[in-house]
## 1
Amino acid sequence: MNNKLFFTLIVSGLILFQACNTPAGQGDEIDDKVEALLAQMTLEEKVGQMNQYNGFYDVTGPAPAEGDAKHKYEHIKNGWVGSMLNVRGAAEVRKMQALAVDSSRLGIPMIFGFDVIHGHKTLSPIPLAEAASWDLAAIEKSARIAAIEASAEGINWTFAPMVDISRDARWGRVMEGAGEDTYLGSKIGVARVNGFQGDDLSANNTIAACAKHFAGYGFAEAGMDYNTVDVGMATYYNVIFPPFKAAVDEADVKTFMNSFNIVNAIPATANKHIQRDILKGDWGFKGYVISDWSSGREMIDHGYARDLKHVAELAANAGSDMDMESYAYVNHLADLVREGKVNEGVVDDAVRRILRVKYELGLFDDPFKYCDEKREKELIYHADHMEAALDMAKRSIVLLKNENNILPLNKDKKIAVIGALADDKDSPLGNWRMAGEDNTAISVLEGLDNYGVKYKYAEGGKLITGPTAFPFELKVNTTDKSGIKEAVNLAKQSEVVVMVLGEHGLHSGEGRGRANLGLPGVQQELLEAVYKVNKNIVLVLMNGRPLTITWADEHVPAIVEAWQLGTQTGNAVTQVLYGEYNPSGKLPMTFPRHVGQVPIYYNQFRTGRPGPKHEVFWPHYMDESEKPLYPFGYGLSYTEFDYTNLKVNLKAKNQVEVSVSVTNIGSKAGEEVVQLYINDKVASIVRPVKELKGFEKIKLEPSQTTTVTFMLTDKELGFYNNQGEYLVEAGDFEVMVGTSSVSGLKDKFTLE
Ligand code: BGC
């Protein structure tokens, strides 16, 4: 143990001794350790804890001799860096951690953050796909495995889950969230935080989670990333905030990340109201808030801060505790304190929060606890992780159409496989696979091979031209149609054509908005050309967002939504196509018929002109239906479920029991997501037409019936008014229980 750490522990020990002799309720053990350490810190060291740097040099090589890297290197040794991001690998993290622990005066360990978004090395489905499983246990397990692998690579903090609700499929980052619904999104956010943080944060295989991006980032206008957000308080309180609040209340999430956008015309990073009053005040959040990448500095471009010093003043005072890559705090915060523009109490509060999380992770007990090369070797790509990734991938698939039960296929059928994505080992990994290795997914073709399926393949044309990379625009093939002919010829000779079409893995993600939501490039033309010669098409979609596949829905008999399912993609798709697994996913986001309908979502406010009406004066379009292509909560199975016997019982004040019987009336065992929606008929603010307030995933054998019971309480029955007060109002409600947001049995109840 180094001297500084030893000294710290002695002081902490003394304080702990005192704490044991003070009456209960006067601060816990960690608080005392934090206070003891804080008392020893200089202002610069405190500010250092609030500073996060991106990885800046090859840690395995010699120390940087010049420039920015040398600067950062020296800062770590001086104790002016509290955290690093994008440094990984047990050996690399050990080396960098040693710089802080052995060289700085107090030896305070750094916390190592990384975007562990959907798996780590073993990649799980993109978060939107996982959300389609509505399977909270599986989602929690997926995050658990991601944490096990990431922690084995030295990481102890993930910038996930993204709990931003979004109703706009144009926004590239919908792939990173749980979709459009705040109730489902809250449950999934909690499951993910629990998976990352586990039961014991101090264990060496659990990591701190981060609820991001606080708040409203998913409402960027026109679905364009980083664009203006301008929504009303009813939406903030009832739609945007709940998944964040649930992460605090129900999962004790350790950190938050603020966002690039403005909230009521004030950048989130400098938004005192949401960070201090709501998050740390009303909700009692004890962890710390990190800025988004350079979101502090960006306030200059927003026209909200004059310069970097002003950024530091505004952000620190507003409760943004750690600065990611803006260099605002490290350069200016100490001066601002000396000038009296930021109270030292503000700095102390931020540092306390950061140190507390480091103590909870156990970093002070052993700063190198995540740096075990043996563990790293054993755990990365562990067979159990692969198996769980396959299970999660299958659960994430949504069957959108299956006319005449063309699916599942059997191996006797002569099949053609068409589409560049069928042979793609990279796209299925999705966008946020920061630690993932290129081309490591099992492609659809490989999945078919693994399952012993005989097929013939034609690419049908390239999807992308030229190299692809995380930061750069994709070049989509829109001109070369030469591959279509071969595909058409192959389709002519086949009984069934499996067409794997959709988006490249980098079509969605940060900075990847789309103004068109159709199949990119020449794929639509390919699909129509093949359809002309063979109508027995099974369309397998690979995509990071809802797509406007209206033509396909009208013509193609079977459509399987396979998103980007991670490492095990090909195996999962094959097992669904061949009936080895009965699909059970339900859409977490509405599929529009046309991009002009966006934002389209199931729980819109009630308008004054509900339709349809005889005349034109109601909310609709002249040239397109106002209805979605596939609604929220929709998804088919190879079996069928029948809903009967809906019962509603008022048990006590604001306690409504709702039960329904569900029977598997098909011939295969299957899983169903039973969904409950309510509508508050008259309220003191306008309420949505319906809102999801309960769901349960059940498994039924053929002919088996089960009763599903929901209990609606204050938590489900109320809402926030525009002042942020939570109300449960007396009056009439409608309730619907069924298989999607548009189909179910209905009843009513009245709250006294
Ligand atoms: C993203 C964050 C991410 C951060 C660090 C930003 O550009 O908005 O979600 O965690 O980068 O990689």
## 2
Amino acid sequence: MDLDAITEYSALHPKPSGLILQYGTAGFRTKAEHLDHVMFRMGLLAVLRSKQTKSTIGVMVTASHNPEEDNGVKLVDPLGEMLAPSWEEHATCLANAEEQDMPRVLMDISVKAAVNLQQDAFIVIGRDTRPTSEKLSQSVIDGVTVLEGQFHDYGLVTTPQLHYMVYCRNTSGQYGEATLEGYYQKLSKAFMELTKQTLCSQDEYRSLKVDCANGIGALKLKEMEHYVSQGLSVQLFNDGTKGKLNHLCGADFVKSHQKPPQGMEMKSNERCCSFDGDADRIVYHYLDVDGHFHLIDGDKIATLISSFLKELLLEIGESLNIGVVQTAYANGSSTRYLEEVMKVPVYCTKTGVKHLHHKAQEFDIGVYFEANGHGTVLFSKAAETKIRQLTKELEDEKRKAAAKMLENVIDLFNQAAGDAISDMLVIEAILTLKDLTIQQWDALYMDLPNRQLKVKVADRQVISTTDAERQVVTPPGLQEAINDLVKKYKLSRAFVRPSGTEDIVRVYAEADSQENADSLARAVSLAVFQLAGGVGETP
Ligand code: 16G
Ligand code: MG
């Protein structure tokens, strides 16, 4: 390592002294103007991680659904996964080292992690459409270059597309070709093959309105449109030509406000969906004939997908196990429906994709979705091999067709990460194949009314939780208070957790009516405020 060169270049990306940031649930995320030094240092760190794993590592510059003024960065591990926990710590240390200490901290990391500095390094870089992203990704490149890493800059891509590139490059092309063309080809081929098996071809099923959150999803859907145009016509809204990124639109807005996005013309019973700012989340929605808004969130997406997969598994008659992974935010009705009606085992993990992803890897087929619309389906290597073998060997026509469909589903899901584009194509294919309208899908079960609130406290870390965030451990007395409040309502449930992305505590409540869910959420917020050091206005 040329420490002099590092010091010299680092001075061009100086750290504002005293600024402390943490590599959180989805990497570093804050106001864009505070991130230049973090980007440079993540370029350095990516090179060390690449040398250590002897693999290509990804660096994505995005702040997902955050406001346009924010930005962020996360590293993508060799199989398209989120960065390993021990390296999250290294990332935090490196980002927070004061200017003069930085080269030493970098050396320490390489010693601790036993990095062979002679090894080659290769980094792939991507960015979203934020006005600050281009310059910040240039700072990542500066970091990579100063440590003599090789790189490829994919420029504007969705977060899942960058995960896909990393996965392809580390599996010598077996998963797909590491280009945008390769991504579009792979997904569209699987989509067209899957849907061509259907007899129904009513046109109205094949058109979909997409709210792109004024983000990267719009650009990439435009590029992809013609690959799938024979099977699906998408109409794009909030494509970034007028509105502000994530402002009053996008998956996060629609889910948290339970309202239609602005800037989208919705007629009654039309199928609509919303992406978030970096296109790794998707939720569906529609207006009914009375003009009421209906949200179809990640839980209902997981239900649709797992019931489809379960039917196909029954058809081919193989004992491959399937499991659904959710978080505490999953609507109680969805969990009940999956367990009691569909007889599928359901597991709960902490919030954050890496936790769900990890759990889902325990099954032959692991379906994971957060209620906010982030998710995918993972097939174990053994399950994939078995299915591909069956499509070749089976003689029974019906069983063979089912195995073929499963094979298309494997190719259609982005198994490296939750992906709005890939999820959208899977959902559209299932709705077409099963001849389901959006209302019929919505009617699978009725969501319990729920409410999410935020509470400001002096230090959100005073709240610690257990049991996949469903129970509070500290501060003392808070869980008891929540228990007492929950007892006052029917079909009720509530939990609180410190946010991993904002300086607040999140409160979730559900109950038999919206009024009760609201009132429970308010009462729990007050308990948090009183017992966990609330600041500002009393909720
Ligand atoms: C991040 C996570 C998302 C999680 C959310 C929770 C990834 C890629 N994204 O966006 O999975 O639901 O944070 O935010 O892991 P919160 O901690 O502020 O509630
Ligand atoms: Mg996102």
